[in-house]
Amino acid sequence: MTSSPVSRVVYNGKRNSSPRSPTSSSEIFTPAHEENVRFIYEAWQCVERDLRNQLSGSERGLVEEYVEKIPNPGLKCEFQQKRVSI
Known about the structure:
MCRIP; mainly alpha; flat
């Protein structure tokens, strides 16, 4: 039985002098990123408005919370245990 040589990872010890991430507090966002953030923010504002209207009784059935019939205990997290009131 022949044995093949074991490959090893060898590091040269040199560090790259360029920074891996921006070190300044101001980050650069692309116009596409800003558009996505604006879209999500506006959509979430609509959901919150609809939920407030639904809770005040002026409208019904706009926002529905999904609740599993048989919840998986392995998927429980802190967020699910804390109820947020609006």
